[in-house]
Here is the input.
Amino acid sequence: MNLTTEFDTVELILHSKAETRGVDAFALSLIKTEKQLRKLFTYLIFQFPCFSYADIPSLRSTLATNNKVYFDGFEQGINRLIPYPTNELIGNDYQHLRSRLSQAIDYRNKIFHGQLTTDELERDELITLVNDLRKWCEMLANSALARVGYDGFKRNSFQKSADTKISNIYITQIKNIEDYAVFIKQHVQRQRIT
Here is the structure.
C-alpha cells in the first residue's frame, strides 16, 4: 500500500457520475488523512527497543481504550517524539495545508452530525479540499519515508525499521507500556479545557 493505491477509491468516486461524489470523496479522504497520521504515530512508538511483536496487542489496546485521542493529538505526539515536527515534514505549505485540514475536520464534524456548514459547501469546494488533503498526505508520506523509513500508508504500522537504533534520535524515550500510556495521556489525548 502506498499513497496512490490508498487514494484509488477516492479517484473512482471523483470520476463517477454520482451526485454525492464531492462529499463522498471528501469524507473518505479525511479518513485516510487521519489514518495516515495515526499509523505514523504507532510506527514511531513501535521502534522503541522495549517493544516487540509480542507487545502489539498491548500497544493497540492502550491506544484503543483512550477515547480522547484525535488528529491534533497524534500530530502533537509525533512532534513530542521525533526531532522533525510535522510542520518541518510537510514543509513550506504546512500553514496553508494545516489550516485546510482543520477546516476539513470542522466540515466533517458538521456533515457527520447532519448539520449545515455556514459556508454552503458546493461540490467544487469539497473537491478542492480533497486535493489539499491528498497533498498533505503526499508531502508527509515522502518526508516521513525519507526521515524515519515509513510513509503512514504501508499496511502494517507495527513493523520494525531496518535502522534498529532509530529511536535513539527521539526527543522522548519510552521504556515500557506504562510509559506509553502516560505519554498518550500527557501529549496525545485531548486535554480538558477549563
In short: The chain has a mean pLDDT of 93.
